[in-house]
Amino acid sequence: MFGKTTTLPDESTALRGRDTRPFSVGGDHLVLGNPVETDVPEGLESVVVGLGCFWGEEKTFWELPGVWSTSVGYAGGITPNPTYEEVCTGRTGHAEVVRIIFDPEKLPFSRILEVFWENHDPTQGMRQGNDRGSQYRSIILTTTEEQQKLAEESKAHYQERMTAAGYGTITTSILPLGEYYYAEDYHQQYLVKNPYGYCPLHATGVSYA
């Protein structure tokens, strides 16, 4: 059954994938007006995060002042150019993620981390709420050494607050980004295309500050 695998595959058990993406993604962001599929413009930064179902979490980030564009996709795993159905089997190793392109002069990376931690429960392992499976795991995929350092520091700081609030151990992985694969076009800005679409937020209710 889709979405129930809670162990990550290795090279011998992962789906083989393909050399090229089997679908197209294009056009401009339906809210921000900038390209969805794009390199990071000069002077901007990007980071990729996973905190459960990517539909609602993309909206969480595109609403932040200083975000230039967002997209949803798959990362953190093995299978090249996966489809949504393949990710849902748990045999790609990928998580559902949001790619955030932002202006660090307008939006400090520390604010992105704050929003990340406070909009899900990072102690749940291979699930988020009722969404179970390795694709829903908590993950931060950084694109600079400074991001990696700040993310690791924030995890330690937030663990102290989580422990004080009675939560368990944070299971979030923090790693340099490898490959990022765009999700199918119908997933991009899903809650604009489907205003009543289901995708719950999983806020911890614990302040990061």
TrEMBL record:
Coiled coil: none annotated. It is an enzyme of class 1 (oxidoreductase). Residues 1-10 have a biased composition (Polar residues). GO terms for cellular component: cytoplasm. It catalyses: L-methionyl-[protein] + [thioredoxin]-disulfide + H2O = L-methionyl-(S)-S-oxide-[protein] + [thioredoxin]-dithiol; [thioredoxin]-disulfide + L-methionine + H2O = L-methionine (S)-S-oxide + [thioredoxin]-dithiol. SUPFAM superfamilies: Peptide methionine sulfoxide reductase (SSF55068). Its EC number is 1.8.4.11. Residues 47-199 form the Peptide methionine sulphoxide reductase MsrA domain. NCBIfam families: msrA. PANTHER family: MITOCHONDRIAL PEPTIDE METHIONINE SULFOXIDE REDUCTASE. This is Peptide methionine sulfoxide reductase MsrA. It comes from Aeromicrobium terrae.
